[in-house]
Amino acid sequence: MADQLDGSPVLAEVLGDALPALERFHAKLAEEGEPRGLIGPRDVDIIWERHILNSAAIVPYVREATAGARFKTVADVGSGGGFPGIVAAACLPDHRFTLIEPMERRVEWLSECVDLLELSNVDIIRDRSDAVIAQVRKRKMHPFAVVTCRAVAPMTKLSGWTLPLLKSQGRLVALKGRSAQAELDKAAKEIARFGGQSPRVVEAVVGPDLEPTHVVLVDKR
């Protein structure tokens, strides 16, 4: 089944130098994504827009958060099919990505994608984020400049799974649905409790003439 955006100039415009690698990722998703339970049957002809460009929408916000940082480190919590972690890593070769995913079959998929896309800037941790948070608290791991995620949990839960991974002045960049602002309102206490401040929702550009997406930004004190 052809993808609606196959061959569109929008792809090169948005993805730039990452396009050849992400074309390989797209082909793998189109062939194996649905049988392996990583995308739904209705997504097969809209992988570019729904998954790859949607994930790439966080790239400017990650760049902004790491501008001037010595260590451009990003943790992607609940990486699943590689959204947004694999896509963002392909777009930001000068950033170091750690993909955190507890499910073995998804870790296997992520490893295959890292090899296929020849991403030398990616590490994968098979664990839950609270185990990684424990490592950060014990100073066995450095906290991250940015934490990203997509469709992992509502902000009431997500705050505790992501904000403790951030260094001071770091930033959470989370892809969210239309209810993003309502989620933030509901999670105000949790966000404050885990050191978050200035929570806000931005409308992020997915591509020319494509529907924008919602990104939640939270700064770490």
TrEMBL record:
The keyword RNA-binding does not apply. Its main location: cytoplasm. One of its GO terms (molecular function) is rRNA (guanine-N7-)-methyltransferase activity. This is Ribosomal RNA small subunit methyltransferase G. It comes from Bifidobacterium myosotis. Keywords: Cytoplasm, Methyltransferase, rRNA processing, S-adenosyl-L-methionine, Transferase. It comes from the Bacteria. Pfam families: GidB. Gene3D superfamilies: Vaccinia Virus protein VP39. InterPro entries: rRNA_ssu_MeTfrase_G (IPR003682), SAM-dependent_MTases_sf (IPR029063). GO terms for cellular component: cytosol. It is an enzyme of class 2 (transferase). The keyword Transferase applies. S-adenosyl-L-methionine binds at G78, F83, R150. Belongs to the methyltransferase superfamily. RNA methyltransferase RsmG family. It is found in: Cytoplasm. Specifically methylates the N7 position of a guanine in 16S rRNA. Its EC number is 2.1.1.-.
